[in-house]
Amino acid sequence: MKKFFIISLLFPLFLNAQLPLLEDDPIAAMLDSLYNKKILNEFFQKGNFNKHNKFHFSPDSVPRYEDFVYEARLAKLNAQSPFDLVFNKDVKAYIELYVIRKRELLSRLIGLSQLYYPLFEQILDKYNLPLELKHLAVIESALNPNARSRAGAQGLWQFMYPTGKLFGLKVTSYIDERCDPYKSTIAAAEYIKYLYGIFKDWQMVLAAYNAGPGAISKAIRRSGGKTTYWEIRPYLPRETQGYVPAFIAANYVMNYYQEHNITPAIPKKHYFELDTIVLKDAMTFEQINQLLDVPIEEIAYFNPQYRKNIIPEGGYTLTLPKEKIALFLSNEDEIYAFIQQQKQNSLLAQQQMNTQEEKIVHKVKKGETLKSIAAKYGISVQDIKTWNYIGRRGLKPGKHLIIYKPISNPSSGTKTLASIDTKSSTIVTNSVTPDSTNSIKEKDNIYHIVRKSETIYSIARKYNISVNDLLNQNGLTIKHNLKVGEKLLIKKNKE
């Protein structure tokens, strides 16, 4: 009797306990991908934890609420949404995943929303889609543009290679447009509009985005012709059964995080602090770092679509803080001339591999593995998985794989380093000691005798002067072709 009494007391607690999520729940895994990503500034300014918290919680407070509070808040959101934002134990489980178990990561995620949500809203509005769909990227990728699922889906909107290709997203050795925030969001909007044209129900669209329209049609047949998500849910894959509850939870936490004492992390830049230009030539992140004084990790942060820190030829874009884009544009001619000069002197060929590649269709032979195929073409196993859907069963003889093999053009040479003086907005070179063997002094003027392979930029670098000064005091233009033995004035006699 005593044992029965204890069990009867505990039974209501079991009923109200958080619904156990899978240990490898994909939504939790995407959140975990933010742990080691250096994409945000310090979480909180010490002493200012409650600065933007209208509820004045103590720093270590973790508020919890009764179910009717969650239900009332979701009802308020639902009144302005076409998504039927219901509350149930599955939704609660995901809400508590965000606001209790993964609080620090939710703080990061909210910080990232300040970078990506304005972009999402603009594109969703253009396609006349509900703006709540911006929260779909929360459960797909945790707003991590480099997120990759175990199945091989990539980017903010988690496109598989075939689906991404179907909606115009290019994947090569150098770029993966599934990771391009702008292009992938357009592709997601077009895909969602396509799915809505099939199912005419937003929750069914969400389920189809996760499992594919074929899986939804199959679940409808197995359910006896039911046409709503909650009716066909038992016939869906386990991951998709949690997908709509997770979307509802994402809507809740992105609107009510302050009520849970969560302060957003600070993004490196907000959306409206960035600008984008189309490049006229191939360019490496290292060059951009040297010329504009932008850390390479920050260039990668704002341009996640470039796989090897190289922006190839073909009119691709560069996104940076507005002040750096302005600096680029004010020195555009000098920058492109510098890059062309490097190419002419074969100083970048080894580093850049000419950004050319050969597309190969490889037919898998018996006994071949991903590792052996990768070794054959000088690429990585991860490359093959990016370009092709492999599946859980691995390779089978006869399967055709798309391979992008880089075409190398090795050369030798030394890098010419340059940067832009952010104060004077002119290209200057790194300081080195002048080589006395080819500099002469005549009547207190210093001249430089041009040697083989030297450029305007390398000479300016030798004497720690700007390219503009070197050109102006010799009456030259940026297009001037130096000749071996030519004499350049470096420093005028002071009168």
Extract low-pLDDT stretches.
1-20, 42-50, 346-354, 409-417, 429-437
Class of secondary structure makeup = mainly alpha
Q: Tell me the β content.
A: 5-15%
- Total beta-strand segments: 11
CATH C-level class of the largest domain? Mainly Alpha
What does this structure look like?
This protein is mainly alpha-helical and about 500 residues long. About 45% of the residues lie in helices and about 10% in strands. It has 22 helices and eleven strands. The chain has helices at about 1-15, 25-30, 65-80, 90-100, 105-125, 135-140, 160-165, 180-200, 200-210, 215-220, 230, 240, 245-255, 285-290, 295-300, 320-330, 330-345, 350, 370-375, 380-385, 455-465, 465-475; strands at about 275-280, 285, 310, 315-320, 355-365, 400-405, 420, 425-430, 440, 445-450, 485-490. Strand 9 (about 440) and strand 10 form a beta hairpin. Helix 3 crosses helix 13 (about 245-255), helix 4 (about 90-100) packs across helix 13 and helix 8 crosses helix 9. The longest helix has 24 residues, at about 105-125. The radius of gyration is 29 Å and the shape is globular. The model is unreliable at about 1-20, about 40-50, about 345-355, about 410-415 and about 430-435 (pLDDT under 50).
